[in-house]
Specification:
50 strands; 537 residues; Immunoglobulin-like; elongated; mainly beta; 14-stranded parallel β-sheet
């Protein structure tokens, strides 16, 4: 299998085209002024040629093997129909593969509209793509319209689509096989039955819209690999069906500045799943997105805006959820905010007007080796803000809607803020709104000391090589922290000195063996706190 750098290929294509045109090696071939059909012009084309096609409806199936070729209409494919250059094939039997088949490298198609007849739209035969089939290195499509095409673009390697409209895709809009890369910018995708766009490592999806044309179907966008970006996109409306955006990140992936709205009866909007032990330092970051009106339906369950989970029972770090807005959502047998099955960091998110018949806005599953670390979030009424069924969940220094903190029937019965579930460390909490100018260390509530006034916690935990150990003490003094293995043998001295209230220590375990360790806080000639650490290599 060839590994292709699409951006590099695109740059080479542009440079090559300019050089060849400048050298008068490329020829502009006009249809129908010089050639009666598009295929006739393609048959005589050579490298760096441009086939320019006037507006009209062309009943053709196109086949071409020329490299570095441009096929262009006069006007954008989504303009008024009388100005479009339209490929509308006449059905020629069940063996018809597609509207256009290109095997050359670096093919550019501009300003075309692709229509399919009913006979072309039944995807029972895998060879009948219906749209463009490309087997070369890179395909670049700009200002095109694909209307009622089973699989609009099927390419073996790289696809770059810009300012294109995909309507009524019955299967895939963009499908790069052979682990190909997708670049989509300012495109509109609408369809049913199957995922609309699929991309692997290096894919970038920007400023696009995704919606289902009918209830049901599978994913709108599916991604797998590393170095993936989804930004500035809009998803919805979508009714029933599978997860909107499943992603299997392997490092340096980001979903940002997107809007997910009017989504119902879907198990999960963004479904993040990976093999945690093999995860990169930060597999994925989900930030600055809006999840509005994501609602469950009794008959179908749902809808969980973000679900993060390890594919196995192995513990591991999933990523960061930062500065997102979750508003006006309902969960049926699921969390209406974030569902977690691994170690995750949550910063500066807002959970507002979310309700569920069973789960908290942020729900951590019963995985005792996982760690959830939440800071600066706003858990607002109604519903339960956070709950852990077994994972270590540190949700201190968050805003719960009131200066008295979250309501908990036994740990904080006088709290007037959003209710907090069991298994969550919520003290100290913010006593003023995070957007207040007075958010500093003095604004954190100093509660009545509970039996766990001395504490140790680590993030991430489990960890690979390094983790950060947080030490909290009830009063200033001299303290010592040491690390022990499961046999009780001291492995390392982590800290020995003065602590006023809190202190962080970075643990570097590169030379340690995989296994379970215990960090112990000692002061006043007695053991004050212990935390279990799981080292995975």
């Amino acid at each position: 299998m060839r590994t292709i750098d699409c951006q590099r290929t695109f740059s080479i294509f542009v440079l090559t085209t300019l050089v060849l045109v400048a050298s008068s090696l490329g020829t502009v071939r006009e249809v129908p002024a010089q050639f009666a059909t598009i295929q006739a012009a393609l048959d005589v084309s050579i490298t760096a040629d441009t086939i320019c096609v006037a507006p009209g409806r062309y009943h053709e199936f196109l086949v071409c093997s020329t490299n570095t070729l441009m096929l262009t209409g006069w006007h954008s494919g989504d303009t008024l129909e009388e100005f479009r250059t339209i490929l509308d094939p006449i059905p020629m039997g069940l063996d018809t593969p597609s509207v256009a088949v290109f095997s050359g490298d670096s093919i550019r198609i501009n300003n075309f509209a692709f229509y399919n007849r009913p006979e072309m739209r039944e995807p029972d035969w895998p060879t009948r793509v219906g749209g463009i089939r490309h087997t070369g290195l890179s395909l670049f499509v700009t200002n095109c319209l694909f209307d009622s095409v089973s699989r609009a673009i099927h390419a073996d390697h790289c696809i770059k689509a810009t300012h294109c409209v995909f309507r009524g895709c019955l299967w895939h809009c963009l499908y790069p096989s052979n682990e190909g890369v997708v670049y989509a910018d300012n495109c509109s995708f609408e369809g049913s039955r199957w995922w609309l766009v699929y991309g692997t490592s290096g894919s970038t999806i920007r400023n696009c819209t995704f919606r289902r044309s009918e209830p049901g179907g599978t994913h709108l966008l599916q991604l797998h690999g590393r170095d993936i970006e989804v930004s500035g996109c809009t998803f919805g409306p979508s009714e029933h069906g599978f997860s909107i955006l499943p992603i299997f990140p392997q490092g340096n992936c980001r979903i940002s500045e997107c809007v997910f709205e009017d989504i119902s009866g879907t198990p999960t909007v963004i479904e993040i799943s990976l093999d945690c032990p093999e995860a990169a330092d930060t597999p994925i970051e989900v930030r600055n997105n809006i999840f509005r009106d994501c609602r469950g339906v009794v008959a179908y369950g749902g809808t969980n805006p973000i679900g993060l989970g390890c594919q196995s029972q192995n513990a591991g770090y999933l990523g960061v959820v930062r500065n997102n807005l979750f508003v006006d959502g309902t969960g049926i047998q699921t969390a209406p905010g974030v569902g977690i099955g691994g170690s995750v960091e949550l910063y500066d998110n807002i959970f507002q007007n979310l309700v569920s018949n069973e789960y908290a806005n942020v729900y951590a599953t019963a995985r005792p080796n996982d760690t959830i670390y939440a800071r600066g979030n706003q858990f607002l009424l109604p519903g339960v803000g956070a709950h852990s069924a077994g994972a270590y969940f540190d949700a201190s220094e968050n805003w719960w809607g009131d200066s008295t903190g979250p309501f908990h029937p036994s740990l904080n019965p006088d709290g007037l803020g959003t209710e907090v579930g069991n298994g969550v460390i919520f003290e100290p909490w913010l006593t003023v709104h995070p957007d207040s100018a007075d958010t500093n260390s003095n604004s954190i509530e100093q509660p009545v000391l509970l039996p766990n006034e001395y504490s140790l916690s680590a993030f991430p935990n489990p960890f690979n090589a390094t983790t950060m150990l947080s030490i909290r003490v009830a009063k200033p003094g001299e303290y010592e922290v040491a690390l022990y293995d499961v046999t009780g043998r001291e492995t390392a001295k982590l800290f020995n000195g003065s602590i006023v209230a809190a202190h962080d220590v970075k643990i570097n375990a590169e030379t340690f063996a995989t296994g379970i360790y215990f960090a112990r806080l000692v002061g006043e000639e007695r053991e004050l706190a212990v935390v279990k650490l799981v080292l995975l290599k």
